[in-house]
Design goal:
Elements (H helix, E strand, L loop, with lengths): L3 H31 L10 H14 L4 E8 L1 H8 L1 H19 L3 E7 L2 E6 L5 H12 L3 E3 L2 E3 L2 E8 L8 H20 L8 H7 L3 E6 L2
Antiparallel strand pairs: 1-3, 1-6, 2-3, 4-5, 6-7
Helix pairs in contact: 3-4, 4-5, 5-7
Length: about 210
């Protein structure tokens, strides 16, 4: 014969299971939101890193890109945060479209974006396409907002250590090398093909706003 505690536990079991399932679902949703940038819809650093590691295991010839919006701070200061958010959201949409089914895009924070793509056979040309897409004006309440882009990329197959961390470091170095040239008053007018000849392991491309 079942005792009162056993009866109570049997009756409560479905409720406890349902409560835990609801809690787990809500926890998953919170974690998912943390890994997704609410402004652009892109993965955040942690979420993107996890996705990139999985992609690299399946596609060891992948390439990693870092992109930084030029002139964003001045644009944000002049037109306000709403205008800046519009530019960031547009950049996220364009980067996502550029990656399409061949990669994953993310936002590291501020005006810094990251992507990994599996098809690198036309990487130089595709970087030029991305730079052109990012510098297209963004319509915001009648204003045509423009921001350029500095982009650095690294193919994993051309690195001594073909890891995500090494690729990010190489892409970051490439991007800031171009930024350094720009600060000294030099414009890298040649598309990414010219940069690729100079930097075979880390391609760079920049189109000013």
């Amino acid at each position: 014969m079942m005792t009162h505690p056993e009866t109570a536990l049997q009756l409560l079991a479905p409720l406890l299971a349902g409560g835990w399932a609801l809690h787990a679902h809500r926890l998953y949703q919170r974690l998912h939101r943390v890994r997704k940038d609410p402004l652009t819809g892109l993965l955040t650093r942690d979420g993107w890193s996890r996705a990139a590691e999985r992609l690299i295991r399946r596609h060891p010839r992948a390439a990693v890109l870092l992109a930084d919006l030029n002139g964003f701070k001045a644009l944000n200061d002049r037109h306000g945060h709403d205008a800046g958010d519009a530019v960031l959201a547009a950049a996220g949409e364009r980067l996502t479209a550029w990656c399409a089914k061949n990669g994953v895009a993310g936002r590291l924070g501020g005006d810094e974006f990251v992507a990994i793509v599996t098809d690198d056979t036309r990487l130089a040309d595709r970087m030029a396409d991305l730079a052109q897409a990012l510098r297209r004006p963004v319509d915001h309440h009648g204003l045509q907002l423009r921001a350029g882009a500095s982009i650095g990329a690294a193919r994993l197959t051309e690195l001594d250590t073909p890891t995500l961390a090494a690729a990010l470091k190489a892409a970051d170095t490439a991007m800031y090398r171009v930024k350094g040239r720009t600060r000294r008053g030099h414009r890298l007018l040649a598309p990414a093909k010219a940069a690729a000849r100079l930097l075979p392991a880390a391609l760079t491309h920049r189109l000013a706003a």
